[in-house]
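Last lecture ended with a question: if I hand you only a sequence, what can you say about the shape of the protein? Today we answer it with a concrete record. The protein is GH3 middle domain-containing protein. Below, first the input exactly as provided, then the predicted structure, then a couple of comments.
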Amino acid sequence: MPTSLDYDLSQKNKKILDFIEDATSHADEIQKNVLAEILSHNANVEYLQRHGLNGHTDSETFKKLLPIISYEDIKHDINRIANGDTSPILTSNPISNFLTSSGTSGGERKLMPATEEELERRYFLYSLLMPIFSQFVPDLEKGTLNLLITDTSVREAVMKILKLDENLANFIEFECSKNSWQGIITRLWPNTKYVDVIVTGAMSQYIPTLEYYSNGLPLVCTMYASSECYFGVNLNPLCKPCQVSYTLIPTMCYYEFLPVNRSNDPLNEKEKQELVDLVDVKLGQEYELVVTTYAGLYRYKVGDVLKVTGFKNKAPQFSFVCRKNVVLSIESDKTDEVELQNAMKNAMTHLVPFDADVAEYTSYADTTTIPGHYCLSTKSSFG
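The predicted structure:
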């Protein structure tokens, strides 16, 4: 029987879903406001003054004066902040912490500045996920301590009634001692509804392994995020991994897109340099993502290549294609993540007669011999 708590949760979910509907319907207007808000709030920071913006908040002046940059272009500024300089270098808000990127720059991990305000914005994107899921998977009604219950005394009281369950322990030991761990997730947790994972880009190589352990449960990619900023959510979370597409939320940052063409028909010089706004991208086109964030990144190339797969109202939806700079290159040729993955898929078919599979792989370009060649190091599994 529905309770007042169920009603409140339903109302909260509806409010968030209404927000997504409204934000995607007014993406162009919101994006203009986001840029103006960022530039107005940070009008006196050193970086914007250095480029002569002088308090302008319109997109035309912004695009004319501010260069498109990568990490190396602001590495000195970030190092100043990391070394204790508290002056407003990139943003007027104090930098509260740094997020470490998984990418590399000159052999080092990137340090991405973050502010308390930016962290709150990221938490907000997380809050969009469960209302989206509630449309596809029912919220549990019994048996769990809701995360909304944060009172320490309440949580401690519940913990006191938890005790060792010998039968459950024996059951877990029995299942884990079997020769095969196929379907181990559903064997141990039969009520599991999905597995929250990242299976786009280079992570797609782990899909067969995840399916083996999960017994065919949906592999869900919930959101698109990076250390630079959080960007969007998957509005169809139960889709197949190959169909994952993210709707970029217009309030998170100011987006621009640099057209990319990985085919044999290259873009002309004008197209290569002409960035387009969020609402102006074209269906089926690939772009490199460029962002201006509340935490002090301006026209910053994230390094991700995205492909437009559709639209939610006026907001485009993107699939992740690959990292821009993650390529193998010996001479003038370039082999990116997508091509490498396709090569591995084709190669793996030769292992079928031997009842073997590739668990994971890595690669590098070997130029110690003439001609140079690509090397793939794999970890295989049998039977």
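Comments.
1. The mean pLDDT is 80.
2. The first strand starts at residue 97 and ends at 105.
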